[in-house]
Amino acid sequence: MPEIEAELTRLGYTLPPPPDPVGNYLPVTRSGNIMWMAGVGSRTTEGGRITGKLGSDTTVEQGYEAARWCALNLLSRMKAELGDLDGVSRILKVVGMVNSAPDFGEQAQVVDGASDLFVALYGDRGRHSRSAPGMGALPGNSSVIVDCVVEVAEGY
C-alpha cells in the first residue's frame, strides 16, 4: 500500500468515491506538474452531506467535519487522477468557502478541518497557503466547499 494511503488508514479514514462534476467543468485540470482541483463538498462514504449555515444552524465543529470530508473528497479525486496519493509532492493552496451567517467570523477554524488533514497526511508537504472566505450561500446549502492546488511528483 502506498505510504500516504497507509497513513490515511492508520488515522481511521476511508476515501469516498471521487465525486463527479455537477456542471460543465473538469474535476481536475493539470498543466505540467501543477494540478488545480475543482471545489468539492462534504459528501461522506455513505453519500450524505453536511449542510447548513455556520453561525445559525451549523456549529463550528460540524463545519470542521464538513471541511475534513471536503479534503477526503479532494484526495479521492487526486488518487483517481494520479493512481495513488504518493504522487502529490506538495499541497500548495487551499480555498475553503464557508456558508456563513452575516455575523459568523470563525471561517478559519472551520477550514482547519481540511488543512489539519492535509498536514496530518503529508507533514510539511501538506502545509499550504489558504483562503477561508465566508459566503452568503453555497450550492445545495453545503456548509463548506473546498478546492486546492497541488504540485505533482516527477513521474506521475
Summarize the helix and strand pattern as letters: HEEHEHEEE
Structural domain count: 1
Helix/strand/pairing class, anyone?
alpha/beta
Tell me the name of the CATH class.
Alpha Beta
Measured on Cα atoms, how large is the radius of gyration?
15 Å
Second-tier CATH architecture = 2-Layer Sandwich
Tell me the distance between the termini.
Answer: 17 Å
Provide the CATH topology: 60s Ribosomal Protein L30, Chain: A
Question: What's the number of extended β-strand segments?
Answer: 6
Shape: globular
Number of helices: 3
Level of helix content? 25-40%
Concise account of the structure shown:
This protein has 156 residues and is an alpha/beta fold. The protein has helices at residues 3-10, 60-82, 107-122; strands at residues 28-31, 34-40, 88-99, 129-131, 134-135, 144-152.
Characterise this structure.
The protein is built from 3 helices and 6 strands. It is α/β, with parallel strands linked by helices and 156 residues long. It has a single domain, classed as 60s Ribosomal Protein L30, Chain: A, CATH 3.30.1330.40. Strand 3, helix 3 and strand 4 form a beta-alpha-beta unit. The longest helix has 23 residues.
Notable features of this structure?
156 residues; alpha/beta; 60s Ribosomal Protein L30, Chain: A; 3 helices; 30% helix; globular
List the helices and strands and how they pair.
Blueprint: H1 3-10, E1 28-31, E2 34-40, H2 60-82, E3 88-99, H3 107-122, E4 129-131, E5 134-135, E6 144-152
Parallel strand pairs: 3-4, 3-5
Antiparallel strand pairs: 1-2, 2-6, 3-6
Helix pairs in contact: 2-3
